Amino acid sequence: MEALDANHPYLSVSELARRSGLPKSTTHRLVGELCRLGLLESTRDGIRLGFRLFELGELVPRHRGLRDAALPFMEDLMEATHQRVHLAVLEGVEVVYVQILGSRSGMAMPSRIGGRLPAHATGVGKAILAFSPPSVVSARMEAGLPRLSPRTIVMPGALTRELATIREQGVAYDREESSPGIACAAAPVFGMHGVVVAGLSVSGRTGQIDVEKIAPAVRTAALALSRRLRTQPF
């Protein structure tokens, strides 16, 4: 199932076997069983993920509760900025986008609901890392700092300095680090006992968005959401 991704939404049984490293006969048998369960679907374009996965994903309590709590604040941000608003959590050394509001407006953006990106290369990821335990930051560095664009921070020392600045300012910026032509301002979201649980951001085209101007609105929304989560934990 993990062989299917955003770049390969449809695969043949042979391709699934090759990408998963399983024998073709085993892959064929497993695909048949997963299709029967609705976890995969067989189409004329190939095998794809099934709708049952979406239904199960909607039942994940942590992400669902966080998303529901964040939605009003995200809607206010979208209305105020007319830009794309993201909510993401840290899973291992990557961020996973649990909610996105706003149209793409023709922008080629790397983010999508359920999608993953390396934490060091995104505004939401850096906002979370800056307030995470040192062991979390070390894990990201030990896993490597892959370059997603010419401006991605790929040196451990530079990332350490960047995270220190974020802690001082309470806001993280992505200046074409995750994708050329895209910028964002992000802020950390805290839950019970002051533990960072998510990142909230507003993104737009470089030249059409003033990230420093919108940063106070992003930080205010993140603080308001944090207060909500402290009184109504998800």
Question: Would you kindly provide a written description of the structure presented here, covering whatever features stand out?
Answer:
- This protein has 234 residues and is of the alpha+beta class.
- Helices cover 43% and strands 21% of the residues.
- It folds into two domains: 13-57, no CATH class; 61-231, GAF domain (Beta-Lactamase, 2-Layer Sandwich), CATH 3.30.450.40.
- The strands form two sheets. A six-stranded antiparallel sheet has the order 5-4-3-8-7-6. Strands 1-2 form a two-stranded antiparallel ribbon.
- Helix 5 crosses helix 7 (156-169).
- The mean pLDDT is 90.
Keywords:
six-stranded antiparallel sheet; 8 helices; 2 domains; 8 strands; Beta-Lactamase; 234 residues; alpha+beta
C-alpha geometry? globular
Radius of gyration: 19 Å
- Proportion of helical residues: 40-55%
Strand content: 15-25%
**Residue runs with pLDDT of under 50 for 5 or more positions:** none
SS summary, helix count: 8
Biggest pleated-sheet summary = 6 strands, antiparallel
CATH superfamily of the largest domain: GAF domain
- Overall mean pLDDT stands at 90
Order of the strands making up the biggest sheet: 5-4-3-8-7-6
The total number of structural domains is 2
Give the H and E element order: HHEEHHEEEHHHEEEH
Annotated CATH architecture of the largest domain? 2-Layer Sandwich
Helix/sheet category: alpha+beta
CATH topology of the largest domain: Beta-Lactamase
Got a strand count? 8
